[in-house]
Amino acid sequence: MPELPEVETVARGLRQTILGRRILSVTLGKTDFIDDPSALEQHLPGRQIEAVERYGKFMLLRLSAVTDGGRAATNGDAEPASLLVHLGMTGQIAPAPAAQPLEKHTHVCLLLDDERELRYIDPRRFGRIAYLTKALLAEELTGFGADPLEVSKEEFADRICGRRGRIKALLLDQGVLRGVGNIYADESLWRAKIHPARLGANLDKKQAEALHRMLQDILRKAIVLRGSSISDFLDAEGEPGEYQRHHRAYGREGEKCYRCKTPIRRAIVAGRSSYFCPRCQPSPRGFIVLPLPKRRKTEREKITRRRREH
DNA sequence: CTCGATCCCTGGACGC
DNA sequence: TGCGTCCAGGGATCGA
Fold this sequence. Notes:
9 helices
């Protein structure tokens, strides 16, 4: 599931491969995850991809104005615009030779001026694509929290300690921090020895600082390793990341804690599977780990299976 | 403000 | 083997 490091990896890959390309035409498959499908068809052709940025879990393809004067004057295409891409759970975006057969669940193809297509594949369609004018983009980006890689420890502590919610929920809340998802929330909490169900307001300054440091360390390391590949994640070159080998909590239910050898537990916190060490990350008062159904296959086994298939 | 529940969607795993 | 069921989860939304 693409979180900040995976989205950053994909964005970097796209920067290497499609910057400066012009979009010639648009072909759409299923469109129920696209804000305004016809806007893509109307406004993308003729634009050049000038930059690829990441904002939280969003990718933003910055597009030039259309230089064809006659058409541009009438429909707003004389202004630069952006294509917003959210990979959701299972989204992949990568260029491919236009002649190459389409993979199943390819829903958007942008024909480029070098006989390639930028293709968006998303089996579950939890992602999102939107054509955004400058004004719509500004509106879209309001309400997001700090970038976890940029945020100072003081601001981080302010954002966490002033809230009543559970720390896991706060880490996942894109309005608090943009880009953190389930994996990196659990990993940073394990490293900082903080239970996911603790209330943000109950963390002391030292714990908030530890969490800030661990979260940044983990995200930076994960970016270097091109993200975590569990289930479907592949980068823009179609390669899996390597950070899943460094997971210490996520997906490790029943396996030994790397610090104290106590079996890692799983509980639902903030509506998500949350993995933690019951000894290193002591529960807050009153928190009960409910019995959970036995896992059929651990995430680790899934990864192994995937790698063999490759 | 914060919570849980529900929905979206598909593929894969499992039980029978 | 084949079919039904459950589950994963980011995010939107809604009611408590």
